[in-house]
Design brief:
- Two copies of one chain form a homodimer.
- The first copy, chain A, is α+β, with helices and mostly antiparallel strands and 555 residues long.
- Among the domains of chain A are: 121 residues, Uridine Diphospho-n-acetylenolpyruvylglucosamine Reductase, domain 2, CATH 3.30.43; 124 residues, Uridine Diphospho-n-acetylenolpyruvylglucosamine Reductase, domain 3 (2-Layer Sandwich), CATH 3.30.465.10.
- Chain A contains 16 helices and 21 strands.
- In chain A, strands 17-14-16-15-19-20-18-21 form an eight-stranded antiparallel β-sheet, with helices on both faces.
- In chain A, helix 6 crosses helix 14, helix 10 packs antiparallel against helix 12 and helix 14 packs antiparallel against helix 15.
- The longest helix of chain A is centred in the C-terminal third of the chain and has 20 residues.
Chain lengths: 555, 555
Amino acid sequence: MTTIDWTNRCVQVDRDTFGRAVAELKTAIGEQYVTDSAADLERAARATVPDPKKPSLIIYPGNATEVATAVAIANRYQLPLWPCSSGRNWGYGSATPVLENTAILHLRRMNRILEVNDELAYAVIEPGVSYRQLRDYLELNHSDLWCDSTDGPPEGSVIGNALDRGLGVTHYADHFGTLCGLEVVLPSGEVIRTGGGPKHCATWHTHKWGVGPYIEGLFSQGNFGVVTKAGVWLIPRPEAFASFTFDLARPEDLPKLVDVIREMALRGILNSACHLINDVVTLSVLAQYPADMLDKYSRLPDDVLDEMRKRLKISHWSLGGGIQGSRKMVRLVKEELRKRLGPLGRIMFLDEGRVKGVETLNRLRQRSSLRMPIDWAVRTFAGKSPEMLQAAPHIHSVLTGRPSDYFVRHAYFKSRLPKPDIADPDRDNVGLIWFAPIAPMTGGHIQKVLDICRPLFRRYEFDFYAALLMQNPRSMIVLMSIFFLKEDQQQVLAAKELYEQLSRATSAATYQPYRVSVLGMGHLTSVSPESARFVRMLKSAVDPQGILAAGKYGI
Amino acid sequence: MTTIDWTNRCVQVDRDTFGRAVAELKTAIGEQYVTDSAADLERAARATVPDPKKPSLIIYPGNATEVATAVAIANRYQLPLWPCSSGRNWGYGSATPVLENTAILHLRRMNRILEVNDELAYAVIEPGVSYRQLRDYLELNHSDLWCDSTDGPPEGSVIGNALDRGLGVTHYADHFGTLCGLEVVLPSGEVIRTGGGPKHCATWHTHKWGVGPYIEGLFSQGNFGVVTKAGVWLIPRPEAFASFTFDLARPEDLPKLVDVIREMALRGILNSACHLINDVVTLSVLAQYPADMLDKYSRLPDDVLDEMRKRLKISHWSLGGGIQGSRKMVRLVKEELRKRLGPLGRIMFLDEGRVKGVETLNRLRQRSSLRMPIDWAVRTFAGKSPEMLQAAPHIHSVLTGRPSDYFVRHAYFKSRLPKPDIADPDRDNVGLIWFAPIAPMTGGHIQKVLDICRPLFRRYEFDFYAALLMQNPRSMIVLMSIFFLKEDQQQVLAAKELYEQLSRATSAATYQPYRVSVLGMGHLTSVSPESARFVRMLKSAVDPQGILAAGKYGI
């Protein structure tokens, strides 16, 4: 018999039952796609968050039928499953479940791009399809379509991120908002299509709401089924594209800047999910924690941070975003941005032409004889550091929705390892927790969230990393990261406590998280008991044994 | 005891139980707010669709607590309730339930505007608040905010329409898409707030998804609860606004036009839910069915339609929409529209200045000496009829989201009554059924839907009324109306048969309705059995006795 022990947050597995379940799964899915080898489980249990839960088994189904079979078998043996698309949910728990001893249902083998509709600009894909795979495929075969991406791992799952309501960088950044039409294996093993549709419903991937109650929401940040296929809206390649970066002159103008951004977003001037990042974020992208300080400090001393900021010409807050449309439209938006942002700081635009120029400069800098004069010119005339010059083409590229390894390497900021070409913080034992409340996008609210959180970071001696991401014209995510050394037990403890304190303080101040790490799913203080009760009632009807993703988002 | 008799589509009411329920409801809600008088029930049973179901009782709660009390009492006596916001769901069933003998839970007394947030551009309102009420309130108190509206009844409920996923006219036309943060009385009588939030969640009305599974969808086109309060996103008054109307030169270019619209929508040039209407739609707005033909024909003979079209200068297909933004932005969009639509027909723009000019002309036309020369000039130079001249200011106004009595009077096209100042087709026994499949927005798909439906209208001898409404850049609603004489039993029968045939034929061709009338809820052929089973499973968990809106959307 298998039971869930909520107190110890684990699943109690009777070895006999478990053995029979594994045997049956191996027969159904294939010997090589069901593993409980110690090495595999150990690898799957790695995550950047503290205390990741170890799975009991990993199942790699190859298609929806095998998912249904696995779910049916799991039901028969009361074996809890944790579906996971690509396992790149870094900072939120990676591939690891909420409860110890759960079996991971890993969907990475299901990585087919089933359809791309050029006319209607959407793709139908499986959960194992990554941003990089989709973008590469589009560039090769459908050059008039772009997909959005996060600035996180290029190998992240497009569907997985959308279902967890992740945010991208373009005007299609609300990934759940641009997901349309799901195929879902229910906990019963039955397969349904959302929108109420039968197999060949013409608007399955073009009309989000379908007919009758709209149920796709239940499968986002939820555990009502395993999504095995989904429609994803794509971006028609714009006639023109430009990116911009803006440096806020006076940090005390941040609330003003937030209000200007909202105003522009509400009026349709700014459409893309622009990112407003603080100095530590920029620093973590451009540089590395000074190695000699790693053991001494868990927070950079103020004077060191000041010195680095000056040397790298990092401003307290920088804003970046994309502009797309016809050539004239882009020109007009640039004009508006200049007019509205100009009084608050310095704005710079990049387009393909300028990016080529910057890339040439970056190449010329390789020659030692040219480095000094180029750096001098860049500092003096553009007000930028050479490090920023190197980052610029990456920023421009990612803002078109093209996934990039460049930014995700910032996770290694506090690692003892130098930033690798291909980041894999799970493999490299990097310590990182995301904490992400969302607030109404007014200067007042954003300032309040920052004022609540900044002192807590200081109290626990961690660098205050804050990125403000526009979720929609009325809401902004305050994305904070706790970087810590996993090998330092004291830091791990402090990171966990800080996370706990942040959750409590923001929730008490009426701010809800937009997304939660497995670490925080046990005590969602910002969810009302009656709401949770309602969702649990629905869940029990569909999954009476609690087989699927038990404990996800507190359900 | 009360039971639902699905075969006879009614509720079997034991008079004793019913009497006790009524007594208890009267004590709780107030004698005057609970009525089962024959006259009241007869009035509530009027609807433009055929065979509206008569309710057994009408309850008018005054607030959420009374709604909860009513639901609790209904549960105790197994008295099925049909929640209704304002009862203006004309063409889809008005206030009437799916099953005979259901009690109507009428929310029209709950009509408070609880909050308007100027900074974040949203309002919090009760379900009894109408478009007109909200717009008037904003114009008086918050002149920098607009709300969207349908071109239907101004007294329609903002929340009711959004929950049924109705469509408006501006870039906020997807009414369910701009609904954010609900207070819901569950079938158990318990009250929850969506988004998982506790009472004071700061982003309740700014962030649609909340945290955890997104459940608002269950309350749209659904029967999982009674919405007693909701956030509605408002439009910041644009710096500039213009409307356009476009007449397609050759009807055979319709598919081309649809493709051009999609392209412009996908590229963000067209943002508002532009309406593409056929000759019969324009006719029904501008004119009246020739009185002498009402008894002879249920469909205008081709030569009569031709003659009317020529006289009124109505083209086979006309497109209308709004443009908003900065002055320069509006100018740019006009330029794009001219470039892209120009080759296919004739485009005309209106702004506040031109509207004033047109209004002056319309006034001058009142003088008999000026009428002829003005009409001659309008016909010759603008290519418009005097009737269109009169319609123009109404079109411009409604496209800013301002509700209007003007358009809804088209329901009287085939009525024996002249169009009244204030339309009330229920009161006036007007026969009207909406049928509204949705298709991917490509010329091919739209043409196909029209080709399926047009011959059916002809077979049953009804005028082919078709309006193509952009739901999003990838989908278009093909809104068809069956106008019939309610007093003519043969026409009623034919209208019902046509509706049935349209449902079957479009569903067989893979097109789903975007919204359904109570008439069609009993046999949603376009919903797959497994999807329906899943939703019913959820419904049973929440409302085991089927108290709320039994039969709504087949659930």
